[in-house]
Write a structure and sequence with these properties.
The protein contains 6 helices and 2 strands, in the order αααααββα. The radius of gyration is 25 Å and the shape is flat. The chain is mostly helical. β1 and β2 (145-148) form a beta hairpin. Its EC number is 5.4.99.12. GO terms for molecular function: RNA binding; tRNA pseudouridine(38-40) synthase activity. It comes from Gigaspora margarita. This is tRNA pseudouridine synthase.
Length: 178
């Protein structure tokens, strides 16, 4: 669902595609497309009426929650450290001058760019693409991008097997095993 919403948000698909995909008469089998990144998706809070929630094998809720807190803190610390490291590397690499790093006589064959730019400016601009001119950059969340020459609409893509087809294949395999 999120992958489709990303495509709609990028104006690569019409909002009506959501209803079309949910209508099994219109779309009996799922079209093939890349899933959205799981990174920005977090189920944070759920509430249920008349349900006693168990936090682990330990009946001591405070013990279990403190273990959870310690685990999350450790993960945060690791990722905060990595984030700082990557931020520093990106900043240092991004500030590299193209002019200072292109040797005399060396051509930038695959780039049509201003030699006065920094590496960050080159990479950030779509002008820095190879001569193949990949025109669509599809964002799938979590910092992931897919570059394609020609975007194919979801409704025009190949589809996975339908539920009925999958059931028939399974039934056939089961009969062979018996």
């Amino acid at each position: 669902m999120m992958a489709i919403l990303f495509l709609v948000g990028q104006k690569l698909e019409e909002p009506s595609i959501v209803n079309d995909l949910l209508d099994i008469k219109k779309t009996p089998a799922r079209p093939i497309y890349n899933m959205a990144s799981e990174l920005p998706l977090v189920l944070y809070d759920c509430q249920y009426d008349n349900l006693k929630w168990y936090y682990g094998r330990d009946d001591n809720m405070l013990n279990t929650i403190s273990k959870l807190y310690k685990h999350i803190y450790e993960q945060w610390y690791i990722h905060a450290t990595k984030s700082l490291l990557f931020s520093t590397l990106l900043n240092d690499l991004g500030s590299i001058s193209l002019k200072k790093n292109v040797h005399p006589g060396q051509e930038l064959q695959n780039f049509t760019t201003n030699i006065e730019q920094t590496l960050k400016e080159l990479v950030s601009s779509e002008i820095g693409m190879s001569s193949g001119n990949l025109s669509n950059i599809i964002t799938s969340g979590g910092g992931k991008e897919l570059r394609v020459r020609n975007y194919v609409k979801i409704s025009n893509r190949e589809t996975c097997d339908s539920v009925e087809s999958k059931n028939e294949k399974y039934k056939g395999k089961r009969i062979k095993l018996e």
